[in-house]
Structure to design on (824 residues):
């Protein structure tokens, strides 16, 4: 491949994470330092910003402010959830994209997101190729859910896992403080994959693990749950439960959406989510003091607890994306491969064809869930533990986080 | 006062905080080093442990493990919520206490808790005096609610405030990530006092403050709330709300317990707490994407974000309690006085008569709440900001917190 001179654009898409900005920084910093990339643009709210011609000139930003992206949660360029059409069905958006790419001489497109975003990436890549417009397209992965196909793990997961494990450990101490007994149910994100709920088990490494963990990969049985819980509660006078928001009954319906379930005894819509529903069922059944806690946005925004390993890898994914694109790679997502050959964890990048990633889903292997379906195995812990290592060196000011505040000057 | 030789006991009581163990460590370490204190006992689950003759010998603990108490959340000795009778009405418990005190030659009683615990402390102090049993009784304050009377602020508040402000700042970034708009409502502890809800405003110091804050000190008006919120949402396409769990309607009823409120349109009990109730009302009214987040136990257990200022002061409160008791002080709580004479914040201890603290409540001055009743003034921020300063130096292992694990060897 020859040298391809031109501008690049980076967009962020889907639900944010604690480290998606570290990936963006990896792209932006590396692109700004490149000899062949002529301009570096950030798209406002992902693909929508490109379609609306809302691009920011990253060269106008203060380098020190950009560096703060390493510890700034959420998607600083703005995100979107925009499902782009199949170009063979409707190429309106693609024509517009091509127009904007030509306007700014964009020859590099980096898209920072999850499953859907890799699908977008793949479609854009194919369209540009079909139209004979030379443009190198690379996907930069992110998702707290860790469900991206073709990679050992995904930037964003390690930090959310560290947040979850630390919070579970802390709440575990609180849950057993009174002699009168107490049950706490912690609801964790991950609608289709149980990686995050499983991460609660990491707290067991410091002796504070939950008693029961339920993942969406196995069928949720309310009676079995109540039996398991009651047994533990009777023995210990307390019980800590971690449960994925995505757990479902045998008929496929989400427990969180149960409206007329005989087992929970309610005939109306629940407002408070799964943790509140389960807390109420347990309260009725056991008479215990029960709290439901939903980690909600906290777990994906908790940058103060981001794992340094995750930050470093997220940055590397962005950096390698630019380096590989400049070398001529296109139509790929940056993925990770785990190397344990030295005896300790090392992470190496790999290139994964976008077409293979798009819309595939990587769930927790059933062999990593215990036989009772209420916990994970040591294999799961061995897998996840390296990803939460390293206390980050975030910048604080006045005892508060100092997040990046970009000037976002519109590209000319 | 002469030298009083004898043993001491420390008990922890009420809802735990991130730093109540730092106070316990202040007591235990100082007492172990004292020449006149012969034995140092920890009571299992506060006053209940004394009544049940369940005391742990603190001299049997590893000093390094005890030191980990500085960063260990919850009450490591165990807590209780035990309302002791008035000794003039029923002196059963007091007789038992005296029996145990005599058995172990306990001459120093340190009680680490909030309002109710100071009441217990006061009653025990008066009873022992009446019975002619020389015993010095000192209260060591704790509460995240910051509602203790007679002290500028209370150990536990600063750390919870730092957790809240940091979490609000992080969620604030997440709340405005999509172009489609979003409302997030964060429910914060503090049933009668709005110090913690007000602490959400500290996030404004780093430019990420909530748009609206509601404290229990003012009447909550659902229509006014919806008007305020809708105005902001229309302007900005997003809105971040912090609300105390204790907000009440003009008739005195808790908004969180509203069962038949015409304004929220529901005729049944809500499960998910205040945030879920308000989220649903806002969703119906505005059609916006709304999330309710309840910080729940996370805010009082979040030791990883404890303010070093708070940890230091909590330790000092315990240390001074022992020093003063040894000097002859009794019937007092250790309180704090703020000294700004050097131009910057300094904290000095004071002695507050237990009788004046017991069952009194310190709420947010109305002058520190804005005229609209939906935010706090700069005075509030100036008051609270010094208390969240200092990143703590907690010990981690395997990327997880390393909490104190005491051996808890029963006293002989």
């Amino acid at each position: 491949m020859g040298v391809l001179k031109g501008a690049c654009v980076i967009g962020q898409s889907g639900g944010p994470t604690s480290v998606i900005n570290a990936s963006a920084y990896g792209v932006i910093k590396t692109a700004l330092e490149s000899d062949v990339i002529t301009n570096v643009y950030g798209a406002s709210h992902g693909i929508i910003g490109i379609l609306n011609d809302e691009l920011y000139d990253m060269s106008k930003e203060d380098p020190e402010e950009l560096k703060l992206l390493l510890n700034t949660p959420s998607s600083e360029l703005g995100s979107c959830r925009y499902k782009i059409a199949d170009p063979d069905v409707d190429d309106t958006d693609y024509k517009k994209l091509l127009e904007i790419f030509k306007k700014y001489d964009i020859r590099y497109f980096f898209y920072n997101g999850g499953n859907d975003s890799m699908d977008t990436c793949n479609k854009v890549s194919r369209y540009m190729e079909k139209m004979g417009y030379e443009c190198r397209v690379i996907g930069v992965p992110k998702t707290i859910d860790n469900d991206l196909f073709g990679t050992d793990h995904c930037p964003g997961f390690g930090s959310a896992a560290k947040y979850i494990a630390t919070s579970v450990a802390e709440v575990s101490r609180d849950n057993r403080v009174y002699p009168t007994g107490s049950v706490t149910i912690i609801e964790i994100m991950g609608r289709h994959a149980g990686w995050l709920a499983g991460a609660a088990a990491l707290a067991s490494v410091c002796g504070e693990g939950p008693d029961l963990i339920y993942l969406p990969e196995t069928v949720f049985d309310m009676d079995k749950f109540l039996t398991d819980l009651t047994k533990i509660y009777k023995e210990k006078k307390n019980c800590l439960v971690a449960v994925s928001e995505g757990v479902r009954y045998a008929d496929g319906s989400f427990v969180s959406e149960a409206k007329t379930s005989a087992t929970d005894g309610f005939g109306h819509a629940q407002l408070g989510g799964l943790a509140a529903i389960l807390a109420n069922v347990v309260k009725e059944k056991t008479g215990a003091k029960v709290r439901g806690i939903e980690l909600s946005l906290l777990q994906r925004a908790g940058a103060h607890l981001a794992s340094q390993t995750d930050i470093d890898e997220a940055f590397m994914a962005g950096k390698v994306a630019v380096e590989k694109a400049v070398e001529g790679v296109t139509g790929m997502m940056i993925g990770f491969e785990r190397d344990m050959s030295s005896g300790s964890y090392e992470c190496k990048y790999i290139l994964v064809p976008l077409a293979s990633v798009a819309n595939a889903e990587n769930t927790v292997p059933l062999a990593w869930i215990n036989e009772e379906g209420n916990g994970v195995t040591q294999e799961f812990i061995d897998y996840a533990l390296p990803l939460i290592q390293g206390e980050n060196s975030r910048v604080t000011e006045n005892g508060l986080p100092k997040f990046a505040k970009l000037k976002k000057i519109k590209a000319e």
User: Anything to note?
Assistant: Chain B has a mean pLDDT of 94.
